[in-house]
Automatic annotation (TrEMBL):
GO terms for biological process: tRNA methylation; tRNA wobble uridine modification. Residues 4-368 form the MnmG N-terminal domain. The keyword Cytoplasm applies. This is Methylenetetrahydrofolate--tRNA-(uracil-5-)-methyltransferase TrmFO. Its EC number is 2.1.1.74. SUPFAM superfamilies: FAD/NAD(P)-binding domain. Its main location: cytoplasm. It comes from Flintibacter hominis. The gene is trmFO. Catalyzes the folate-dependent formation of 5-methyl-uridine at position 54 (M-5-U54) in all tRNAs. Keywords: Cytoplasm, FAD, Flavoprotein, Methyltransferase, NAD, NADP, Transferase, tRNA processing. HAMAP family: TrmFO. GO terms for molecular function: flavin adenine dinucleotide binding; tRNA (uracil(54)-C5)-methyltransferase activity, 5,10-methylenetetrahydrofolate-dependent. The keyword Flavoprotein applies. It catalyses: uridine(54) in tRNA + (6R)-5,10-methylene-5,6,7,8-tetrahydrofolate + NADH + H(+) = 5-methyluridine(54) in tRNA + (6S)-5,6,7,8-tetrahydrofolate + NAD(+); uridine(54) in tRNA + (6R)-5,10-methylene-5,6,7,8-tetrahydrofolate + NADPH + H(+) = 5-methyluridine(54) in tRNA + (6S)-5,6,7,8-tetrahydrofolate + NADP(+).
Amino acid sequence: MESVIVIGAGLAGSEAAWQLARRGIPVELREMKPQKMTPAHHTEYFGELVCSNSLRSDQMENAVGLLKEELRRCSSLIMSCADEHRVEAGGALAVDRHAFAQAITERIKSHPNITVVEGEVTEIPEAGNVILASGPLTSEALSEAISRLFPGSRYLNFFDAAAPLVTFESVDMDSAWFASRYDRGTPDYINCPLTEEEYDVFWRELIHAQEAEVHGFEDAGVFEGCMPVEVMARRGRDTLCYGPLKPVGLKDPKTGKEPFAVVQLRKDNAQGTIYNIVGFQTHLKWGEQKRVFSMIPALKNAEYVRYGVMHRNTFLDSPRLLDRYYRVRGQERLMFAGQITGVEGYVESTASGALAAIELARRLEGKEPVNFPRETAIGALALYISDQSVVNFQPMNINFGLIPQLGYRVKGKRNKNAEISKRALEALGKLDLEP
Ligand SMILES: Cc1cc2nc3c(=O)[nH]c(=O)nc-3n(C[C@H](O)[C@H](O)[C@H](O)COP(=O)(O)OP(=O)(O)OC[C@H]3O[C@@H](n4cnc5c(N)ncnc54)[C@H](O)[C@@H]3O)c2cc1C
């Protein structure tokens, strides 16, 4: 059987390699880590999460919950490792990032059909089937090679920021408490309250704090879903209180009331020794992060194991370049997967890797492609990415707006979404997905 080269062992590349290998196709997986690291990757492991440890909602009334379930039903490697290494996070699927990435690496490296080749890829292989999954921080040389592939087209980009991590022992638990919003489920978050006076001081310092130099960055180029906390704060005094500092459903046991604002911390590893500050992606200078965030009473002595950082995130103008299987139009031996295609997010990147690999495997087996229909989240995302009528293409999270409506009335948004998810899983069940 002809082998496939997969470039990049991130979420998309690892998933793609796995899907091919489990269908008996030999894979050469080329990864530059640990020889060369992107500015956001820090470990030798595959499937490394560069920012939050949350894969977002795991509920079927939420489109990303549906996307996860569809991936599980496609025997996704990433989902299986995420489920194995989950840490409690209310209705979300959060993972112990190290154990998760380690598990992916072990399963990839021990698969008999996968050969891992270490080192930076600087040119696109001239022959054979290739899946390019080198991510939003593709190395410069490969990035240039990709540009040469699409003369006249340009890379698009935006900026993506990561949130800081702090140690549990440095959080002042006398000024914080464990709870989930509305006390639903288990008390998974540490809640750090602020009074109105404390919030005003914090907010004023935050909007005037010094930012780190990021070449070419302006507020306009930030993705709404991952906006730095200081950029959001500059939109108005109350904006954060409707966003990451929303106190609704969080009653402080000391007062029995909802505080003016609440900063939430989510467990980042299974031992619960590290927490991340939810929604605090930032590009403030490191000293400024420590100074300003210490105005949150529970974080006054916080010890940072990683500060927030910001990076330029590049992606292709996919509607003009790729088809519904993430293949390059007119050069079908080349496929792209992951964030570089303009899908946005960990789970979305994984989904594109799965679809690209399933299609390629079918082609190599001489079978008809599996057409994931628009009713499924995996299909809807791919159809959006390759929709030539989309003019001003921007990174896209999965959402129910991409999936056709039901055509009949269902009362209540949650019920309606649950019904759309049910229909999606039925449609997925009709596809021939098994090797
Ligand atoms: C700073 C930042 C923060 C983000 N935060 C979040 C978040 O909180 N939540 C979320 O859902 N999404 C987030 N994203 C978006 C996105 O989900 C992640 O970037 C995700 O990791 C993308 O998966 P991927 O497989 O496409 O790329 P990656 O996971 O980045 O994998 C690409 C792999 O390719 C390798 N590589 C690169 N160039 C080469 C080369 N030339 N040769 C060989 N190997 C190469 C890299 O080392 C890497 O291992 C963030 C992105 C950035 C940049």
